[in-house]
Design brief:
Blueprint: H1 2-14, H2 24-35, E1 39-46, E2 49-56, H3 59-71, H4 75-82, E3 86-88, H5 100-108, E4 113-121, E5 124-133, H6 141-162, H7 172-175, H8 182-195, H9 199-212, H10 217-225
Antiparallel strand pairs: 1-2, 1-5, 3-4, 4-5
Length: about 240
């Protein structure tokens, strides 16, 4: 059964009209289509930190990925860290509330059910596949199984795209249509040096400052990079 699912997904990725080569945009569109959900996105992570999305299937999917990156919480974050699917069939009325900052804006955007599936190839953990529906309810067994295979194929595709690049360079195929918030990564590095903390801790400080000042994370990061804002141990 798994082999047939894999063949069906690979066939969908390669079908005419898809442009031949597998692109990140096509990965998201096929993820949405084969699982029968409303939207899909792929979030890459490294060392427990979100790097950004490589693709989204629609505007709401893009919002979901941006919320997870900005807030540092959500199904993709948890799926990556736990190494297993994270499923929320009723985001507006969950059995156990979680993602307190993420949930409100996602529900306002029309998300009623949301699911994260880890993307990994062997011991290499890359991120997570996000699926959402505009109606509440769990995935069927077939949808769940298709999502697992889709996440596996997405991970293999990302590694193939990155094969010819060095560790500190991102493949052009992954850059196209992506949202990696480069200014935030640059700012996190600067705050790390200013406070003498890890980059991960610096990113937490940036998020906290953005939340407290009711500003977008990218805007706070831009101020740090432009040296209009400096973090000090005393202020922290």
């Amino acid at each position: 059964m798994r082999g047939r699912r894999r063949f069906r997904i690979l066939e969908a990725l390669a079908e005419k009209g898809g442009g031949g080569d597998v692109t990140t945009a096509r990965l998201c569109e096929v993820s949405r289509r084969v699982t029968g959900v409303t939207g899909a996105g792929i979030l890459l992570m490294s060392d427990d930190m979100p790097l950004g999305s490589v693709c989204t299937a629609n505007d709401v999917s893009a919002l979901i990925e941006n919320l997870q990156y900005t807030l540092g919480e959500g199904p993709c974050i948890d799926a990556y860290r736990l190494g297993k699917p994270v499923l929320e069939p009723d985001l507006a009325d969950p059995a156990e509330p979680r993602w307190l900052a993420f949930t409100g804006p996602a529900v306002d955007a029309g998300v009623r059910a949301i699911f994260g599936f880890p993307i990994a190839v062997g011991s290499v953990h890359l991120g997570a596949l996000n699926l959402y529906m505009d109606t509440a309810g769990p995935l069927t067994d077939d949808q769940h199984a298709d999502a697992l295979v889709m996440a596996e194929i997405a991970g293999q595709a990302v590694l193939v795209m990155q094969t010819e690049c060095s560790d500190d360079t991102l493949a052009a195929e992954l850059e196209e249509g992506s949202d990696f918030h480069y200014v935030v990564h640059q700012a996190a590095g600067m705050v790390s040096a200013q406070l003498e903390v890890s980059v991960g801790q610096a990113l937490v400080r940036l998020r906290a400052h953005a939340f407290a000042s009711e500003r977008a994370l990218d805007g706070v990061a831009a101020d740090v990079v432009a040296r209009r804002l400096r973090f000090t141990a005393e202020a922290a």
